[in-house]
Amino acid sequence: MVNDTMFARGAESSVIREIFSYGLERKAQIGADKVFDYSLGNPSVPAPAAVRASIERSLQLPSDQLHGYTPAPGLPEVRTAVAESLNRRFGTSYGMGDVFMTVGAAASVSMTIHALTNPGEEVIVIAPYFPEYAVWIEKAGATCVEVLADQGTFQVDAQAVAAAITPRTAAVIIDSPNNPTGAVYTRETLDALAAVLSAANADRDEPIYLISDEPYREIVYGVEVPWVPSIYENTVVCYSYSKSLSLPGERVGWVLVPNTCPNASRVMPAIAGAARTLGFVCAPALFQRVVADCVDEPSDVAAYARNREVLTQALSSYGYTYVEPDGAFYLWVKALEDDAEAFCERAKRYELLPVPSNSFGVPGWFRLGYCIDYDVIVNSLPAWKQLADDYRRER
Amino acid sequence: MVNDTMFARGAESSVIREIFSYGLERKAQIGADKVFDYSLGNPSVPAPAAVRASIERSLQLPSDQLHGYTPAPGLPEVRTAVAESLNRRFGTSYGMGDVFMTVGAAASVSMTIHALTNPGEEVIVIAPYFPEYAVWIEKAGATCVEVLADQGTFQVDAQAVAAAITPRTAAVIIDSPNNPTGAVYTRETLDALAAVLSAANADRDEPIYLISDEPYREIVYGVEVPWVPSIYENTVVCYSYSKSLSLPGERVGWVLVPNTCPNASRVMPAIAGAARTLGFVCAPALFQRVVADCVDEPSDVAAYARNREVLTQALSSYGYTYVEPDGAFYLWVKALEDDAEAFCERAKRYELLPVPSNSFGVPGWFRLGYCIDYDVIVNSLPAWKQLADDYRRER
Hints:
The structure is a homodimer.
Chain A: H1 4-11, H2 15-30, E1 36-37, H3 49-58, H4 63-67, H5 76-90, E2 99-102, H6 104-116, E3 122-127, H7 132-139, E4 143-148, H8 158-164, E5 169-175, H9 187-201, E6 209-213, E7 235-240, E8 253-256, H10 264-278, H11 285-294, H12 301-317, E9 322-323, E10 330-334, H13 340-348, E11 352-353, E12 355-356, E13 365-369, H14 374-394
Parallel strand pairs in A: 1-11, 3-4, 3-5, 5-6, 6-7
Antiparallel strand pairs in A: 2-8, 7-8, 9-10, 10-13, 12-13
Helix pairs in contact in A: 3-11, 5-11, 6-7, 6-10, 8-9, 12-14
Cofactor (chains A, B): pyridoxal 5'-phosphate
Keywords (chains A, B): Aminotransferase, Transferase
Protein name (chains A, B): Aminotransferase
């Protein structure tokens, strides 16, 4: 029989995708330059030139070497390149055995949730949060437990996490630099979270795992992004090259089970088992090689910084309140009425397409993806002003 | 807590992968040309030249168009190209809405099982069968029910399927051309299977689905591979370009929910929901475009036919019994003792690496993947003869 849960997950478009589709239609109606689509996290910054050079170099390889199956955890030289890059940056001693190449961040996180939870257990997420976490947690048979971030700074509220921990808590997922708020968790935040988890572990046979989802690690505006496994040893890191190398459609990333994780010898096989069980065979072979060649390519953060600057200055002058984003390419803005969905519907009148905060598990805000063209942002500013004026007139 | 099932699935290497790893070690010890590794289904035939031309053409596109997220079901022009190719070949009237691009055949089948089964239901597989079916069925919470193929022809035994159907039967998986036997199911076989399923459906609200896993459709030696949805309407087809275009590492394929399937409007969203739920975001973007460009490229069957010829003639003359393979690039051979695992261990003495049938759910046979270099096959023949002589001397 057709599975009702799968049907529901497929039939309910994600709100983000729905807004994106509306934007495409609207652009067809009135012209692409007249619609200001802030819905998606599809980077406008091109992939570095090294990506193309790497692909062209790989095309010289014999076909069966180039396009053949790789080992399930990835090509040894690619896993080694990833480990060594991390070692250079974080003073760690990882080896290829700590790295499992994946079909992008969604695969990384979905596999890790399956590896680290059992049916009936609980996984804590920090609201607002990336909505697919809840879908993957449900599929693993676990329960998604939402804990509100500090509503001023959008840092993790460690005491709120402490209050949510039960004997069934298997893992906590964090995502810094954060989607949707742009917050980057400070060392103090992570120290406090680690203290809470370590205290809880004293009563348990197996520790609570910290799943650190870090696709935006490289997109950061002058602040430190602490290396989480050096703060809490039971951390598994999930990564993707979707944002740092602007390759979201190519689906390549990794899971790191650090050799400093006390249970690494049980966690890594469980990651491999989850990959196999869910139907992932290996990460795309050609783009594994791209990763090896481009592992230390810098992301073009300057382009996002320029977008952030023009957008925040303008919104601020129009009276919008937002969280100062330290990383990622999202701006988290207070809606001008309590009902964020109503606000976003009204924004459509001005051809503005933000995403209401409800899809991230909290009311009253909206998310702007400013990874779009600079000109689109600049051209949208009068519309943002008119929208704010509109609300002001009503008050 | 680390999930025990995931740990077990990761810790138990697949037998096939274990033999492959042994082969790599052994090659390092005694020289690559002295080890005759028949374990994997990694095509030795290169990808058609059109693949490289397509990649080079795509590299001219703007980066965000080329490497950006595609819609979850795939790029519209790619889905259309796939549908139209099928229409030309099978006289069907499919459209892009019937095609969902996937991260290879494993994703196709895993997603389809999740979409079409509920926990507690049963999925029938035809033994010998591709061992990962059982892993994916277990993950969906369903039970894998093994039904023996006809042990002479290795066609589906429709009466045995009829006997195995219960009110909990959700689906039957078939795989023709077959891995591991090389059998191609005839029209008569499929008619008989369709009759059995249709008869069972008379008592049910929702039909039994037929999942037709067809990665080897193009690798066939002069026989017809009937189009299954034209024989049984409740068929979902799973495909991959791993074998036909020799791209197993790149992970690209599709699921077809034909518009002639009465429940297509419920099945397709469930496929999409399964993709989302398991952590697949989209099929790799660059290779989606390769598919559109190469959808009608012929496979180089001649190379496999030559391998098949030299191997079957020699084994036959040494006294081995095998199933005459009509398709795929596997030979299914009777072990020279009852215990196939013992036979395969003994074969190692001659540096021969077959896969014992136990991993495919039946005793007494072994599988040879003859998608390897012709010279390896020719050089291995004296070893196959010595192995047979060995057994003869003991009798």
